């Protein structure tokens, strides 16, 4: 039951309650009407029997019978007997026991040839004559047959009633739960699109669901404001760090250019220089991403010779790869042009190739390439390095996520792929990764030739 959705549970509950109510109502109705029906039959029998006393007279030394005795009013058969069971006048149902003993003044049930009857015998004195017996007989089976027909009809209608109540239950619960569906939809959209500016906005209402939606909206206000403050803070801090860092780097360079530094001081200055460069790189990535978050990242679309840009990246990184004893092979289709931001695309290639060098194996290979496929340009980087295990794969796009920080180059921060993904999306493209630990990793991107 716990696995079922709230809507299904409500529909089931509603249907079960309706079935119970229908059963109880029908049960009550039938037991009352069956009782009413039978007592009605008995009443009519008693009435007819008592009436019949007036239909028998003794005149001129002869018994006279009114022909009304032969009429089947309310299905009641009347017959007049002498006390020794001699039938004088009247009608009996076909096949009814002829010599059934008399029981005076008591309605009883008698079965004859598979048919049930109510039978009432009553003695009555006839003036100037003897005491006679009137017997009234009425078939219960006839009345019950009608009743059973109604019962059968109700049983046939019962599933239809259950179905109807299930359908009603479904529409009612759907209507009642539609605000909940809206809350779920909004939360999913926020999760999927990472868009904290969305709100549920159920409107005015005073029930618990409306209150929940309002509380949720105000919680989102608070979260959005917090995230906004954090972005602003990151952006401000990164911005403020840039100037002192470039001053440090400038002084390091100046000191290293001077020839009179002793060995120890020189190596200390080199460490400061290296760390400052890493920090500058980190600050510039942070600044880029926080600007991107605030919608302030500059994307300048222009016609880009992607083949040339890729070839330049290949040339730059084949030297770097060679330093690590790796070979880089590039397969670039000439004449690939697209609408894009040249600086961002260079950044994209640098990050992917830098990772291939960092996480490739010494003496290994890097393959890269670009080619046109329809209205898109597909490009890729493949290495035969350490690879990424399946559990880490979905997280590599997250900021600051590093599978093994000790493997990265000095200054690697886990921001590179987040930036790569942002650049690809800014160009309306897609990026995917395939990897197997110990075998290598392939990043594949597709960018449209022109922006739609
Ligand atoms: P980093 O600055 O640590 O390289 P990235 O965002 O570029 O950050 O990459 C995130 C993580 O993804 C890396 O720390 C690394 O563990 C993994 N990764 C990225 N590229 C590769 C690759 N070519 N081979 C193996 N692991 C990779």
Textual characterization of the structure:
The chain is an alpha+beta fold and 452 residues long. Helices cover 50% and strands 20% of the residues. The chain contains 7 helices and 14 strands. The chain has a 5-stranded antiparallel beta sheet with strand order 4-3-7-6-5. Helix 5 (306-323) packs parallel to helix 6 (342-359) and helix 6 (342-359) packs antiparallel against helix 7. The radius of gyration is 49 Å and the shape is rod-shaped. The two termini are 48 Å apart. Bound molecules: adenosine-5'-diphosphate. Residues 351, 355-356, 359, 383, 385-388, 396, 401-404, 408, 412-418, 441 line the site of adenosine-5'-diphosphate (ADP). Residues 351, 355-356, 359, 383, 385-388, 396, 401-404, 408, 412-418, 441 line the site of adenosine-5'-diphosphate.
List keywords for this structure.
452 residues; alpha+beta; five-stranded antiparallel sheet; five-stranded mixed sheet; 7 helices; 14 strands; binds adenosine-5'-diphosphate
Kindly provide the radius of gyration, computed on alpha-carbon positions and rounded to a whole number of angstroms: 49 Å
Distance between the termini: 48 Å
SSE series: HEEEEEEEHHHEHEEHEEHEE
Strand order of the largest sheet: 4-3-7-6-5
How would the global form be characterised?
rod-shaped
Please provide the count of β strands: 14
List the helices and strands and how they pair.
Layout: H1 6-51, E1 56-59, E2 62-65, E3 76-81, E4 87-90, E5 108-112, E6 115-125, E7 131-139, H2 140-193, H3 208-257, H4 263-293, E8 302-305, H5 306-323, E9 327-332, E10 337-340, H6 342-359, E11 365-373, E12 376-383, H7 416-426, E13 430-436, E14 440-448
The structure holds adenosine-5'-diphosphate (ADP).
């Amino acid at each position: 039951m716990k696995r079922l959705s709230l809507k299904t549970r409500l529909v089931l509950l509603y249907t079960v309650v309706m079935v119970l109510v229908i059963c109880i109502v029908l049960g009550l109705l039938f037991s009352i009407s069956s009782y009413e029906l039978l007592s009605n039959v008995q009443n009519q029998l008693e009435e007819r029997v008592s009436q019949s006393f007036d239909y028998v007279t003794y005149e001129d030394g002869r018994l006279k019978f009114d022909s009304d005795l032969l009429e089947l009013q309310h299905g009641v058969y009347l017959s007049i007997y002498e006390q020794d069971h001699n039938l004088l006048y009247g009608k009996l149902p076909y096949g009814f026991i002829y010599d059934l003993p008399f029981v005076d003044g008591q309605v009883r049930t008698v079965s004859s040839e598979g048919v049930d009857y109510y039978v009432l015998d009553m003695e009555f004195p006839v003036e100037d004559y003897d005491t006679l017996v009137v017997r009234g007989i009425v078939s219960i089976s006839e009345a019950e047959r009608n009743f059973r027909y109604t019962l059968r009809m109700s049983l046939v209608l019962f599933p239809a009633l259950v179905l109807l109540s299930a359908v009603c239950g479904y529409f009612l619960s759907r209507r009642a739960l539609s605000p909940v569906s809206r809350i779920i939809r909004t939360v999913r959209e926020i999760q999927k699109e990472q868009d904290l500016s969305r709100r549920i906005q159920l409107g005015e209402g005073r029930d618990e669901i409306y209150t929940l939606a309002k509380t949720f909206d105000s919680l989102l206000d608070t979260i959005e404001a917090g995230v906004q403050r954090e972005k602003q803070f990151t952006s401000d801090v990164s911005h403020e760090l840039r100037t002192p860092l470039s001053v440090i780097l400038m002084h390091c360079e100046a000191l290293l250019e001077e020839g009179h530094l002793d060995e120890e001081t020189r190596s200390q200055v080199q460490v400061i220089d290296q760390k400052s460069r890493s920090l500058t790189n980190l600050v510039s990535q942070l600044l880029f991403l926080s600007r991107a978050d605030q919608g302030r990242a500059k994307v300048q679309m222009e016609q880009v010779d992607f083949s040339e840009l890729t070839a330049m990246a290949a040339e730059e990184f084949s030297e770097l790869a060679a330093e690590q004893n790796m070979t880089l092979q590039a397969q670039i289709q000439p004449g690939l042009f697209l609408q894009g931001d040249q600086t961002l695309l260079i950044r994209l290639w640098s990050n992917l190739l830098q990772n291939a060098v960092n996480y490739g194996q010494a003496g290994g290979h890097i393959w890269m390439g670009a080619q046109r496929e329809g209205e898109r340009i597909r490009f890729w980087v493949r290495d035969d390095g350490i690879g990424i295990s399946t559990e880490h794969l979905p997280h590599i796009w997250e900021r600051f996520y590093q599978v093994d920080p000790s493997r990265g180059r000095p200054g690697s921060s886990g921001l590179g792929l987040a930036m790569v993904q942002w650049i690809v999306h800014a160009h309306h493209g897609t990026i995917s990764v395939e990897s197997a630990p110990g075998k290598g990793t392939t990043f594949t991107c597709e960018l449209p030739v022109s922006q739609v």
